[in-house]
Amino acid sequence: RTSLTELGTIIHSVLERQGINPAVCTLLPPDREATAELLGAVGLVDLIILVEAFLDHFVREHAKVPVIETGAGICHTYFDRSGDKGKGREIVNNAKTRRVSVCNALDCLIIHRERLSDLPYICEKLPDSNVIIYADEPAYAALSEHYPETLLQQANENSFGTEFLDYKMSIRTVSSLDEVLSHIARYSSNIAKHNQEDPETIRRFQQLVDAACVYANVSTAFTDGAQFGFGAEIGISTQKLHARGPMALPELTTYKYIIEGDGQTRI
Question: Could you say which of 50, 80, 207, 267 is the most buried, measured as most Cβ atoms within 10 Å of its Cβ?
Answer without folding.
Answer: 80
